[in-house]
Amino acid sequence: MNDPYSVLGVAPSASDDEVKKAYRELARKYHPDNYHDNPLADLASEKMKEINEAYDTITKTREAGPSYGGGTAYQSQGYQQNYRQSYTGGGSAAYATIRNLINANQLDQAMTMLNGIQNHDAEWNYLMGSICWRRGWMDQAGRYFRTAASMEPGNVEYRNAVQYMNSGGQAYRPAGFAGTSMTSSDACSICNSLICADCCCEMMGGDLIPCC
Amino acid sequence: MYGYVRPDRGELKVRDYETFRGVYCGLCHRLRERYGPLARFAVNYDYTFLAMLLSGPEPADTCARRCPYHPLRRAVKCPAASPAMDLAADHTVILAYWKLRDGAADKPFLPSFVYRLLAALLRGAYVRASERCPGFASTAETELAALSALERDRCPTVDEPADRFARILRAAADGTEDPDRRRILRELLYHLGRIVYILDAADDLSDDLRDGSYNPLRYRFSLQDGRLSPEDEAELRLSLQHSHNRLAAAFGLLPETPYSPILKNTVFLGLPGVTQAVFSGEWKASKRQRKERKDHERSL
Lengths: 212, 300
What we know:
By secondary structure, chain A is an all-alpha fold. In chain A, 55% of the residues lie in helices and 0% in strands. In chain B, the strands form two sheets. Chain B has a two-stranded antiparallel ribbon.
């Protein structure tokens, strides 16, 4: 294994607090929420594992005091993709296969199979949206997700996809670069800035939004 | 190429700004050394970014170089020749050549003649560059042909033409040996290409409407007085936000290099700033101002 200090990017002489701060920043960077349905999620998960191990090693060798109890906060299970076959009955076997292909990132094959299906129902639109999303065709993805959700308003999976699209998603911004966005400033970015400010406050020991 | 991918200079540290200038000048010198004096004029910010992105973790050796077009300016510390700089120079020439050819195709007679003349002058450089990067040259040719076909058919989606363009940028990562790094760079460059294409479409919208040229936004969205409606603009920018998130997620997986502060600035301040300027119309206004200033200087 690599030297745990270089994994966290701190000197071996760093104080416990500095180690903890570096760990937290990296954990924030590779957090599963930043790799939502992302083709690179496996690499982010590996990184997270690496920094968790490094942090554990350092805290153990330093025979940490009570402030280190509880070990690492983040586990790598969060990266699992959300195209599990959530569906019992009703759906055809073809849809199950297509979901598996999307999970395996075999998008061309998934697309070919999907194009072979005549009946464009809600699930068809949702899976089309998922393929577009993976490919980076963000505009089409949003349109297919919305169609799916309007055809079957009760489906939580479709509704979540639309909500995620409309929320603008999430990405890590390095310290000092928070609050920049590709959309114009609106109510959403105010919320985001508040949440950011809250995170910063929490890092410094305070709190801005008490409930999170 | 287009110049959308640039750092927010005001937010750079002075030493990082000087490094950035050095890479830009270095790319210009490299273009001359490899492809002759005409190729210099193809130097651009987008490929300066690419040169820095593809550079390794070791600090580059530098050498002081003077600019022949600014003889009074003092010499700039430029990075020495490296595979990343060479690749950026080769790709710049290939894309500049195709851009001239493309310009020749859809312009009226006289400007079209100028474009064809320039393309002919750059032809030799293009042939040499495509011998050095055969994979990239053939990708650029195929994808640009596919893009022209989509334009001819008045493709009604934004994603399809953007995809063709993004594939070209993505191909710049194909020579990367480490498979994980290659995957990361391919993802990053794809989304960067998508953003550049859409920004260019948004910037050109009013001109294209006037000339009757193809613009994907015109067929995808409903327009009001030659502009996107506020709802459509919000929707388009939301889709850019998602592309930017994917770009940022990929960027976060790359190791730190001496260029990281400049790259971070470009990704997290430069791109959002340019996007804001394009949609507010400031970008176009500043382009016009620069042109007017140049015309004025020439007339003096």
